[in-house]
Amino acid sequence: MLNMKQVNFSFFILLLASLLFSCTRTVTMNRMAPADITVPSYVQRILLVDRTAPQNETVSVIQGILTGEAPFEVKNAAEATLTTIQQELNQSPRFEVIRARERLVGGLFAQTFPTPLTWQQVEGLCDQYQVDAILVLEKFSSDFIVTDKRQMIKKTVGTGKEARQIEVMGVYMEGLASVSAGFRFYDPQSKNIFDQINYDKTNLWSAEAETRLQAAAMLIDKVRATQFVGRMAGASYARRIAPMPITITRSMYEKPRSNFSLAKGSRLAQVGRWEDALETWQQGLSLPHSTKEGGRLAYNLALAYEVLGELEEARYWAGKSFTEYGFKEGRNYAGNLQRRINQDAIVRSQLERN
């Protein structure tokens, strides 16, 4: 049992955390995150190709029966993967993306990559679609495993004000979807398979009910589950080859409200008047202020400069909030800004055109 000292200490920690977080307001902004790899700048138009058509339809049906993967289900999941790649890449200025009309024979149900396309095939597709390179989904397989067990579950009985929860014996069911998707990126100019990678993605769903039939009806079905995980694989590959927009969050200090400059600058920033907010916080540093207030003013100046796109100036003020005022959050912010400066340089190089 907790004694009074422990209770008071726990209350003090909660109060301190509440006061700390109530001093800040969250600010969101968009930026470009660099791709995992840098594709040659002469590659501007790419063709997406589905190479998961079965060599023999009859054999593929038999394989599907043995593995529990119907060919049409795998095809739908593969289609979801490629569609997501195209949708994600369309959010980036890096490539113009074309979808091939044909579906090539390749690695349906395959665990290993098929023999690469010949350069004659690659060049033929590039000429046909007027593209610089082709991105191929070479192999694809999916699975959905359902397990269940009997256990106590919560059930609501009664209605309105009389509603309450009780525990009854029921069925807890889980569905684990998995996808294995292999990609190759063919560069005909250098006659090089620029990239080859396999993604294994999984996701877990659950449902519970009084009977197995009810739980199964509540659980996601296999087709939607494998399509969902296929989209995860597609999004991952898009981020691998193209800079992508992301949302980042920062903190802005608006208290103590007794500091007029902190409070007014925060209000200006909330309505998008960042230049005015910056000027207000700068003026605040020239007025009498405590060490803590100075650190927060300098930190907010760094935030304003970042929002306005002046990252070096932002890094300077974040660092100053720590070096001049001992504000530890400024040290962390300066590190984050340096990483962003480095990443932005990579993004610029990845978006260069010949």
Automatic annotation (TrEMBL):
The lineage of its organism: Bacteria, Pseudomonadati, Bacteroidota, Cytophagia, Cytophagales. Residues 1-22 form the signal peptide. Transmembrane segments: none annotated. It holds the Pfam family DUF6340. Keywords: Signal. SUPFAM superfamilies: TPR-like. InterPro entries: DUF6340 (IPR045921), TPR-like_helical_dom_sf (IPR011990). This is Tetratricopeptide repeat protein. The keyword Nuclease does not apply.
